Amino acid sequence: MSWLRRRLSQSSIPRQEVAFVTSRLFSRRSLTLSAMAAAAATAALPRGARAAFPNRPLRILVGFAAGGTVDSVARVLANGMSPILGQQVIIENKPGGSGSIAANAAIGAEPDGHTLLFGIFSLAVAPALTKLSYDTTRDLTAVSQVASVPLFMLTAANAPYRSVADLVAAAKAAPDTITYASGGVGSSAHMAAELFTRRAGIRLIHVPFRGSAPALQALIAGQVQMLWDTPTPAMRDFITQGKLRALAVMTQARLPAYADIPAIGEVGLGNDLEVQAWQGVLVRAGTPPPIVATLNRAVVDAMSQPETRQRVAAVGVEPMATSAAAFDSFFKSEVARWTAVARQAGISTQ
């Protein structure tokens, strides 16, 4: 541009006009260079990170019907995340296939962080039970675990078993005579029972029901002798009323809230019998890491609120929040663990 300035200064054009023309040219050149630099910087960003996040309402897909424990926890979480993210977080129920319908929908969504999956224990078991159209660990990215739900080993109060040792002795004395209920094939209760029986070297008869509520009623009615279940309000009431007896909780150490109930880690069958019916948030694989980090912070902040924690605990679930890396490691270990148990036991829904 210096040559143009010299030529203009040597012409008959007044000096003021020369200054005006050159200043306009320099300004346009600067704007052009700035625009080119901005375009290059934008192009270097991942496609999903070019716009501010979130820039519209988010949805959390829940693979179970409205009104249940899973749905209730997801709604509490959504309410807590909305003000943090500055966008409405909507619950969208997609029941069926033990959560696989919702998982498939989440995997089919754009990897921009606006569609989340509220996954539970069954998500880790599904690959071993049925043929899926997706790869659970490859096609999903962990955001945070949000809840841990212990399982209890229950009998009717009038049953002859007063301890885990009593149950094991009775089952060994008369194999394939003691029945236990569950909320369905591949449910957390079913898998916990399979893990326990294999470690104890006993055989029980599995009686699956469509949901944990009818399974609990079957135990109360004396239709089955055993049940593994999460601490629902109904279960706690039956224990308090003396209608049920908890032989153990499937944890390594006793829980402060149930200090009088032995932990499965105390019975001498190994240190790998702990089972939790966990819940957590995931997104489609390929979601940009900065967006995953934003979602993780929103979940952690929401689950740190006293009101959120109280509402989650009220439905019998222990609230928690983890880093994305911690949940990713746990989730993958759960898939590997329950795939092995299901294959060893020959469990399948096909």
Characterise this structure.
It comes from Pseudolabrys taiwanensis. Belongs to the UPF0065 (bug) family. This is Tripartite tricarboxylate transporter substrate binding protein. This protein has 350 residues and is α/β, with parallel strands linked by helices. It has 2 domains: 58-149 and 278-345, D-Maltodextrin-Binding Protein, domain 2, CATH 3.40.190; 152-266, Periplasmic binding protein-like II (D-Maltodextrin-Binding Protein, domain 2). Helices cover 47% and strands 16% of the residues. The chain contains 13 helices and 11 strands. The strands form 2 sheets. Strands 2-1-3-10-4-11 form a 6-stranded mixed β-sheet, sandwiched between helices. A 5-stranded mixed β-sheet has the order 7-6-8-5-9. Helix 3 (69-85) packs across helix 11 (289-303) and helix 5 packs across helix 13 (324-345). The protein is globular and about 65 Å long. The chain starts with a helix and ends in a 5-residue tail after the last helix. The model is unreliable at 1-8 and 16-45 (pLDDT under 50).
